[in-house]
Amino acid sequence: MERPELAAALDRLKKVVFPVVSLTEDEWENFASCWHPVEYKRKTVMTAAGEVERFLYFVVDGVQRAYFVGEGKRDATLIFSYSGSMSGIIDSFQLQRPSLYYLETLTASRLLRLSFADFNRLLATYPNLERWGRIGTAAAMSGLMERYIELMTYTAEEKFRVLLTRSPHVLQLIPHKYLASYLALDPTTFSKLLATVKL
C-alpha cells in the first residue's frame, strides 16, 4: 500500500473510531502508527481453528468470513466483514486462546492490522482507547446476541428479510451459498426466497 493509500485507509479508520470516542491528536497519532497494511489473495485462510488470533483488522477492501467446521466437514458461516468494518476472531484475539473458528478471505482483500501486543499496550496507556475497545466489544456482543435470537426464533423468510433489510448490498458482495450458511438455510431454500421475497 503506497503512502497516500495508507493515509486514506487510516482516515477511513478514524471515521469508524471517532464516533465511538474522541481521541486527542497524540492518542490518534500513537494509535494510527500501530496499524500496518496487509494484502491477501482470494480464499486465503487468515486465521485457522486452533491458532491464536494475533491481529485485529480494519477492512479497507474485500470480503472475509469467519466460519466453524463441524462434524462431517460441514461449515457454518458465523460472520462477514467487508470494507469499513473491523475483522478478526475477536474472542481468540482478546483472550489470546486458540480459535474455534477460521477466518478467510472471500475476495482479494486489503486490510490494516493491529497486533495484540500493540492493542494491549495502547489500551493500558490510553483510557480513551480502553473505552473504545470496551464499547466495540460490547457492540459486537450485542450484534451476536441479536443474530442468535434471529437464528433461534425467526422463520426462514423472516431471517432472509432481516438480512436484506439490514444489509441489502451483501447479495452483490457475497456468494449465495455463504449467505445461506450464515442464515442456517439450505441453498435451495435460499434460492426460493431470493426468487419470491420482495422488499
TrEMBL record:
CDD domains, A to Z: CAP_ED
Stretches assigned to the Cyclic nucleotide-binding domain: 19-123
Listed SUPFAM superfamilies: cAMP-binding domain-like (SSF51206)
SMART domains for this protein: cNMP
Protein name: Cyclic nucleotide-binding domain-containing protein
Species name: Larkinella rosea
